Amino acid sequence: MSSAAALCATDRARLLDRLERESFDCVVIGGGISGAGVARAASQRGWRVALLEAHDFSSGTSSRSSKLIHGGLRYLAMGDVALVRKTALERKQIFRMAPHLCERRWMIVPARSYAALLAIRAGVVAYEKLGAVEGADLHRNWSAEDLAREEPAIDTRRYKHACVYREYLTDDSQLVIANLRSAAALGAAVLNHAPVEAILRDGSTASGVEATCALSGRRVRVRARCVINATGPWVEAVRRLEDPGAPPLLHLSKGVHVVVSAERLPVREMVICNTRDRRSIFVIRRGDVVYLGTTDTTYAPGPNPWPEIEREDVEYLLEPAARTFRSQALRPEDVIAAWAGLRPLIAEPGKAPAEISRRDEVLVGPAGVVTMAGGKLTGYRPMAVETVRRAAEVCGLRLAPDPEEDPPLPGGDFDGDLAALEAKLVRETHLSERCVARLARLHGTDTREIARLGSEPLVSGAPLLASEVEWAVRVEGAATLEDLLYRRLRSVWTVPETRATATEPASVRMAKLLGWSEERRREEVQRVSARLASELAFLAG
Length: 541
Ligand code: FAD
What we know:
The protein is α+β, with helices and mostly antiparallel strands. The protein folds into 3 domains: 9-62 and 173-249 and 356-395, FAD/NAD(P)-binding domain; 71-169, no CATH class; 418-536, Orthogonal Bundle (Helicase, Ruva Protein, domain 3), CATH 1.10.8.870. The chain is built from 18 helices and 18 strands. The strands form 2 sheets. Strands 3, 4, 5, 6, 11, 12, 13, 14, 15 and 16 form a 10-stranded mixed β-sheet that branches. Strand 12 and strand 13 form a beta hairpin. The termini are far apart. It binds flavin-adenine dinucleotide. Flavin-adenine dinucleotide (FAD) binds next to helix 2 and strand 16.
């Protein structure tokens, strides 16, 4: 396991020593997809990189998205052709680098009339041209009979047609962690639970950052030629560390998703539904659950770092299901899990959140801090390369040439045929098909390494392995129970039967690996229980 042990939570003291001792070419603030992408791109181009994340890797927006690697068909209607082209083309690249994290699925757009179908089809054709979609991946038109056979949950009394096109489903947290592991394997020093509190200066120029390890209280000064602010919804707060008078930049938009059991809403693929206010939401099957999202409403930051999930958000998301599917109307009480995220949109005064472009921007502050703002999960690679080039200009640093082809991410070194990989893994590991299907989607070929650590279940009857805890701690940097359950196992959202039962056994295993006292272990359990309860607090309203 040592070669893969890139983000090790048992090695934090040594990493803190290294951060203090070495001098880096760049220090990246923020461990979401933007920071992870930059850390990898800079490491690939020969830079010595440090990355500091205030909480956990991907704990911000990058674990709370709709989890689509997509160009965004609806942004075409907004006229954002350049953005759609960039992100639609990225689908192929991410699939090539991490086929396990880029699942090819049909996106179904139901239509009530033939005229409506033709209008949808025209948009899809343009979208496919921009994304260079070919062959078997091109869209299809489905009749009511096709719908009844392929997606019987859709109410064909109402919808007689559908246009279906290819989109890709990912696991946003794992995509971040795979990029960070790749950066660390190239030499980057990557630490979570280390908020940056100050920008160091040499004269008037930024020369590093000061951060505190939130788990040990130790303060570190990290010296670097260049400072990159990749803090998503918090870029303004970090910009103010550099320049207290920095003008406002962002319009934050709240996006909620809710999860129901697939027995309650037996959707097979991914479906677009229309809300009463003429927006689109996604209904996405993942394993034994289906999630619906998202809302898109202006958010004014309050005392909590994350917005609350209100009953009206939930009702808004459930309402279209009654008009689209045959199943009985969904009620808030059917929701078994939920999450809320914040879109860091670049403000366009006078526009509602749904009308604002998802474009990205790279800005340079008065002390030379390079800030990346806006953007999409899907566009993280080009955004990272643009940021690194800009940083090289600002700080006078040389860049090694771009790699000819971006190499696979950890776990992505196979030919893209996940079904064949799964069959092989079932034979080799003797794990159940259900267990392998889940692991292979998250870890690709690394499933072998996890199986080598053991095949004992974490919770009896559930497809979670005890060895996943060790993998998460030693290889993926999970340092708290929430890191593990929310952003490594992803069990709270995708294996809801284990929401209550996995917490205790997982905490016992983590305590052993990380040397926690019994008091610390109980605190960790309490913290997770409080988050689980807060996400379903709307049920009491
Ligand atoms: P974040 O992921 O928020 O990362 C910023 C990080 O900075 C955080 O982890 C935070 O803890 C850290 N940080 C903050 N302050 C400090 C500090 N002082 N020191 C150290 N660290 C700090 N895009 C898609 O392509 N497909 C989708 O399906 C999709 N769906 C979405 C659905 C919703 C509801 C939302 C909100 C967004 C969606 N997006 C989607 C957009 C995408 O999720 C975001 O663009 C992307 O995740 C932003 O990543 P980021 O790294 O910039 O920000």
